[in-house]
Structure formats: structure tokens, C-alpha cells
Hints:
By secondary structure, the chain is α+β, with helices and mostly antiparallel strands. Helix content is about 45%, strand content about 15%.
Amino acid sequence: MTLQAPGDRSGQRDEMSQFRQYLREHNLPVTQQRLAIAGVIFASDRHLSAEEVASDVTAQGENAGTATIYRTLDLLVKSGLVVERDFGEGFRRFEPSRGIPHHEHMLCTVCGRVDEFRDERLERMTTIIAESHGYSRQRHRLVIYGVCAECQRSGGPRR
């Protein structure tokens, strides 16, 4: 699932404006480090770990300590502009929310690649299963763990 066309920066500018507004409304400083961290997340079409965010921020020539990275990621999640994902790997990943409907994930256990998908049949099935057990479904989460096509072909990580 592509969230935003490569090179389409209009969504990123809007998200940055919303983040600046969120910081101001909560009487928090709008710092270059926070904006750089947010920019990395908003520009990405991947599910980034905090370490990947730190690496990308450093590659852009910005200095941001580990605590600043984590605090800013938490602010981005609280603002609703970023969604936190835990795929059971021992660390969290982050993706821009962009108002995208509920979707599921597939995680390559070799290279760590994350692909998104949405299937209406799955949505209907989870409701049917919940109701058959006397539940009123509110939400669900599905992560399919496996080996991506590229790793199957090459026999190793794609990184």
C-alpha cells in the first residue's frame, strides 16, 4: 500500500504544519530537532524504528539525542499524526497516519520489510467470528510473519 507518491511533498508540508500547530497549542517549543525528526517520519514510505529515524536525522546533518528522538516520536503519536506499531520484534516502528483506513501488515522475518494490505473479506470475517462468540467487534490487529518474495529469490536480506 503506497501512502504517498514518491516526490509528493504536499502531504508532508501539511503534516509539518499540523505538527507545528500541535506543539504551539501544547506550549511546547518548536525546535529544529523536533521538526527534523517529524520530517523523516512524514517523508518515509516505510515503518521506521527509532534507530532508523536517528540515523536519517543524522544523515541530514541534524543533531538529536536519543532521548529527543523518543520524546518527539511520543509527541507525534499523541498528536495523532503518527501511528506506533509493535510487531513483536523488541522495538517499535512508526508510520505517518495520513488518515488511512485500518490496514494489516506483513513482516519479512529475514530483512524486516513491512508491507501493508487491506482486504474487505478479512474485515467481514473478523466481525463474523466476533459475533459468533458473542462479541461486538471494536477493532483487530493482524500481522502476517513470513519471508518476502525478494528474500525468497535471493536467499537473504534485501538490505
